[in-house]
């Protein structure tokens, strides 16, 4: 009987502790909206950059007259993408996954 009371007390205290941490960690709703707008704008800019890069490769590929020219288009695009990835890795540092140069929100 004592064990049951102790187990129930521990479970109840854990439930309250976890819910208290969850409430404290949630940012206010207004701050989330502003942060979301910044992150969304940053993401849209990255997408536009990628689309432009692919369009340039497409134009190059359409203008290619032989296999070597087509291969040169692809190599050029791959080199540009590698430079961007390397720049992101340098910028990211110890940020971990998902911190790919995102704007700092506070």
How would you describe this structure to a colleague?
This protein has a domain at 33-89. It has helices spanning 2-25, 29-63, 67-92. The chain is mostly helical. It contains three helices and no strands.
Could you provide a short overview of the structure?
With 106 residues, the protein is mainly alpha-helical. The protein contains three helices and no strands. 80% of the residues lie in helices and 0% in strands.
The overall average pLDDT, rounded, is 79
- Give the uncertain stretches in residue-range form: none
Main sheet: strands, sense, barrel: none
Helical/strand content category: mainly alpha
Annotation keywords:
106 residues, elongated, mainly alpha, 0% strand, 80% helix, 3 helices
Outline the secondary-structure elements.
Layout: H1 2-25, H2 29-63, H3 67-92
Helix pairs in contact: 2-3
């Amino acid at each position: 009987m004592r064990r049951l009371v102790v187990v129930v007390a521990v479970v109840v205290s854990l439930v309250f502790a976890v819910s208290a941490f969850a409430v404290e960690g949630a940012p206010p709703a207004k701050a989330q909206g502003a942060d979301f707008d910044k992150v969304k704008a940053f993401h849209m800019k990255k997408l536009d950059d990628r689309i432009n890069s692919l369009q340039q490769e497409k134009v190059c590929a359409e203008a290619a007259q032989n296999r070597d020219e087509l291969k040169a288009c692809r190599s050029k695009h791959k080199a540009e993408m590698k430079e961007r990835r390397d720049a992101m890795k340098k910028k990211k540092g110890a940020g971990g996954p998902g911190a790919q140069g995102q704007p700092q929100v506070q």
